[in-house]
Amino acid sequence: MVISDKIASSLGNGSFIRKMFEEGDRLRKIHGPENVFDFTLGNPSVEPPEKFKELLKEFALNPIPGMHRYMSNAGYPETRAAVAEVLAEQSGLPFEAKHIVMTVGAGGGLNVALKTILNPGDEVIALSPYFVEYGFYVDNHGGVLKVVPTNEEFLPDLNVLSSAINYRTRAIIINSPNNPTGVVYSAEVLASLGKLVEEKSQQFGRPIFVLSDEPYAKIVYDGVKVPSVFAQISNAILVTSHSKDLALPGERIGYLAVSPKINKGDLLVDGLVFCNRTLGFVNAPALMQRLVTGLQRESVNIQEYQEKRDVLYNHLTSLGFEINKPQGAFYLFPKSPLNDDIEFSQKAAKYNILLVPGGGFGTPGYFRLSYCIEMDTIKRSLPAWTELAKELGMKKA
Ligand code: PLP
Is pLDDT at 34 greater than 90 in this prediction? Predict the structure, then answer.
């Protein structure tokens, strides 16, 4: 075998999503790309803000000597200070540059954080439905992922969560606004989580961290605000990126922020910086750090996403699909009209609709649609949804 048994098994387990990609390619060749409705990928369809392009031009025309060299493994002090300034405003806490580590996206940041805090066999809790990469990231660093279901509104069930925490629990990963449900945790939900984590940390005599994965924090609708995790949870580490809020996923730029309230926070940051280096990231991309320094208060056009959400949500609910209306991110997570979400995804593919079954997020019986695609594609898909609902005998079709 040219690859390890573990990687071979991971490749095997991921094969269904790969099959959907291949199915998409096959359908595009037969029917033409404009007649295939691919809702599988979370790749932003909008462009970065104008200010990003202006700054990019500015750095290209007036380069700063040495701007492409290595810097401190934590990132440029002025970039970290710009991040800290906004976090201080949002949380009311004394954030400084020393609390921030610039990372290679949120995925890089999660790996850095997990490598820093996990001992072999430590458990990390993810709340299902969850971003499936968490399992691989935890495993990368010798941890064990423990999946705990949320309630019917996709919010943490504190009783279930409480009984899942034990002396091996090192961290709980939360993700609000959530991929795939679009749910946003309120300040009250965060506060009760914070209280639970504090009690359990005391009970087991070591800190349990809340790793708050927030790449969608600026993508919220209907006036909803994402409360600061730091204002509610003392043991919080924020991990985020500009993949979604500035539509820069290919540029791999994000950061980690450690709460000023964390005991021995300086040591934790030293560990994060060391792991950023030794995982081989070395530092976050230099040019992107320069650019995002001036973009901390910018975001893509959220209105575009809200309109896409509304068109798709309104049509699907009119056909009888049951959907918890998302408050953020750019996904819908409807209940599958068939018990078997894989069978449903195969039926949908007959109408050239591609989606991801809920089993891919630890929650079978649902399916995920990414609406970060062209509005035109969404609108052209609507008759296909109507036909699909008719075939399934859905009551409102
Ligand atoms: N976390 C969640 C919940 C995501 O949906 C994604 C990307 O889709 C990531 C992390 C990874 O983001 P990044 O591109 O910044 O690594």
Answer: no
